[in-house]
Amino acid sequence: MSFAFPFLKKGQRETDAASKFTDEHEIYQLLADKEPGGSFLVSKNGFWHGGIHITENGAGSKLDLKQGVRCIADGHVIAYRVNRSYPVSQLGNVQVPYSTGFVLVRHTMEFPKGTTLTFYSLYMHLQAYEEYEQDTAKAKPAYLSALAQYQITSSAQDKPGASRTGQASDAGQQGLNVRSGPKAGHRGSAPLGVLPQGATVSIGERQHAWGKITDAHGAQPYASKVGEVPPATVVGGWIFMGNEHGGPVVEEIMPEDAFDRVVIALSSSGDAGDANAQGIAVKAGDLIGHLGRFDSLSASSPSATRMAHIEVFCDESVKSFIEQGTTWVGSHSAHPDDWKPLGLSSEPTLLRIAEGTKLYRNAEQAGAEPPVTGVVQRWSLAELARDKTKQHTEKTADRSGRKMNWWRVGSADQRGQAIEGWVREQNFACGTVTREFAQNWVDFTCIDGAHDPAHTMFATTKAWVDFANHASPEDAKAAIKLSPMMQAVYRKLFPQGDGSRAADDLCLSYAGESGHYPWLMQAASRLIVKHESEWANPQKWRQLYTEIENGTTNPQYEEEQKRIEKLVWWDEVKAKVAGFPGPDVFHLHPIGLVGNFALQNARSISMSGLWFIYSHEALAGVTNRLHWPGGASGVTLGAGYDMKTRTAADIASDMVAIGIAQDTADSISQVPAYPATTQAASRETTTIY
Q1: Which parts of the chain span the membrane according to its record (predicted)?
Q2: Would you kindly state where each structural domain of the chain is located, as residue ranges?
Q3: DSSP state of 403
Q4: DSSP characters for 331-352?
Q5: How many helices (H) and strands (E) does the chain have?
Q6: E strand or H helix at 263
Q7: Per-residue model confidence as pLDDT tens digits over 516-527
Q8: SS (H, E, C) 282-307
Q9: What is the C-alpha to C-alpha distance for residues 522 and 510, in angstroms, rounded to an integer?
Q10: pLDDT in tens, 558-583
């Protein structure tokens, strides 16, 4: 399966295109510098936090927010909630908007063959639908189409055919033909009936400009011919969804009952061939949504905030999955042929530099007093290979016949100061450097233990209140006051710590000092921690507010409780999705997970190799297609769509099939008369109007 980081990097200049992140370290630095709240595992206020936050004014300043939040891995959307407009909290005379919108994606990882892990990625606080209506240029995620209905417009002017005796249909009987299946062009197969103008249908499967009807919402079709019996149902039939007679034949509308409720995306049709039986398919890097409003309820100064919360979780099976994976790697890493059936490279993809490793001043030369690492560091080998100045290959092969690489890497010393130098990727004389497989889950650790039901990091809610109020007990911040689960986290992140200020250490552990890399944040990204989800059991917070208020009433806390009750969704999903876990789940760092797996198949490729793929995909029908996203956008020709080898009629038919109006399609079909244009179209992806 493929992985992708959940956002794109902003171009250096306003006109530069967004680009993908390829280095997880860059993201940790960005989060440490720009997101002081909402860190993984522990918030700055001492609460459990199972994900990461991205805010518009924080990390968003370095991201291309127009590109939205992206899916982290291949999977299926299984549930979502879309706000029509933002609900509001009321603080005195001030209305404070917040988003309860979310998308939940289910992913399945398999390694080795027959061993699977189901995990989930969650994207909370997404943009309300009214903002898509206000900014029509902003891209919508594909799952919104599942909520949409489509109304037949006045541009749909199909009519029932004449009767056997030649009687024509009534002038008012116009609409859109329903056919048994999609075909090339807009004509399709024989009509089953005609949907009247104004009728509304829901669409499931799509093929080019055609859609399969899943619900007719009570529409009464006309018969396909005068005098015949209208079809009993049009569900299962196909309609053309492109342009005719100067406009679109269907218009997307959103029913009001689609909003502000948990929608389960798994189809209940019972049809084994139903494309949505597992949910709505989504690929790594696909748009999930955009940052939504989540304004602060601070009584002193409610502030406008756009943000998204991203988290990953799974059930108990993660422990056995990791164990079986590492066992398999240990037995098969030296046997390249064993990896082929898995579709994975037999070469390790990660470089691990252990603590206590010397970093040479130059490749193959230690130099004077080489710096020594005080932390564990990991790099993607594909990422290191991007910069050829940081790679050196030995001239002589070793006993295995392999010429070893040296890599220039960054790390930190015992004081956390940045250091840099060269290491040999294997059999390094001055430390432990190993090449690792992503499937070995190197340095990942599962942590399980009791925790405060009110989701503080302490063993009891009262202990958190003492800490928050700066109470006098000297041990208020000590490790012994933490929950057993948080004590285990502390020991992993601060193995040399005495525990006297453990609470402060954890609350501040993810904020990197100015100019320093956030090593603790990186270390936490390899912890897989079991904890009750924030999105279940809203009653858990009442105990906390009771302790805080101590007999008084605070309007802010009352509004917080109301928010929480609207934010939760867990029970609704569990009741309708088979196999969905209970709320006590293991949480994984989204960036740590993607960083471990994202570049496992990355390889450099020559121009000759690119052309080989390009030309063969054209023959296979991959790039020899037309694409038209609608609106004023141009028609894109794939590399293999050579107009010179097609007739004008064929080209026009292909254009109409993707939704282009007939008159425009006829004009485009004449382009082959111009050899220069045709030559360009056969060699590269080209937009021609």
Answers
A1: none
A2: 149-253, 350-436, 607-687
A3: -
A4: HHTT-GGGTGGGT--SS--EEE
A5: 17, 38
A6: strand 263-264
A7: 789 999 999 999
A8: ECCCCEEECEEEECCCCCCCCCCCEE
A9: 9
A10: 888 899 999 999 999 999 999 999 99
